[in-house]
Amino acid sequence: MHRLAGYFLALTILFGSSYSPAVAQDKSLTVFAAASMKNALDEIDAAYAAKSGVRIVASYAASSALAKQIEQGAPADIFASADTDWMDYAIAKKTINAPTRVNLLGNSLVLIAPKDSRIDQVAIGPGFDLARLAGDGRIATGDVSAVPSGKYARAALEKLGAWQAAEPKFAMAESVRAALALVARGEAPLG
After folding, report:
1. From CA 76, how far away is CA 108, in angstroms rounded?
2. Hey, how many other C-beta atoms are within 10 angstroms of the C-beta on 152?
3. 59-115 pLDDT tens trace
4. Nearest to 23 by CA among 59, 60, 52
5. Which CATH number fits domain 107-191: 3.40.50.720, 3.40.50.2300, 3.40.630.10, 3.40.190.10?
6. Using CB atoms within 10 A of its CB, is residue 156 exposed (0-12), middle (13-18) or buried (19+)?
7. What are the helix (H) ranges across 117-175?
8. pLDDT in tens, 114-154
């Protein structure tokens, strides 16, 4: 909860700096945020709306999809990307106001399995054989060419020397939440 309080404070500062006369008139903010941030931002949005009276309209998807939507003219007051590359992309396309960029958070890459999985303790390090661990099943992740979780997974597996064997087993989803759903439903033994 302590991290959430700090996150709330940071976003309150961010929201405050984004508050404009237009927002005061229509009393709403449109937030485009990475799917991985949904749980935390839903709580923060509700608390902020209750305190400020400003309604938060949130759209969650992969950072890549959101950056492209903004580029195509979708209106967003705040873009919370899970990937600095997509934030850099938006700045290069001049679709966000560069001086307002704030790096708030970091990411951690984790290996997940369904609740009823027999996989218990996994030592991840050089020589890690993710392909063997997945057996005949698939490994769910975000698209390795665009979704932050997929990009990070590929980079980590390349560094561990496990990418080449694992790549054919990957089931690439449009967001980290979609990959999580594949694992939660038992459609992939790992993610």
Report:
1. 26
2. 19
3. 999 888 999 999 999 999 999 998 888 999 999 999 999 999 998 887 788 899 998
4. 52
5. 3.40.190.10
6. middle
7. 130-134, 148-160, 163-166
8. 988 888 888 888 888 999 999 999 999 999 998 888 998 99
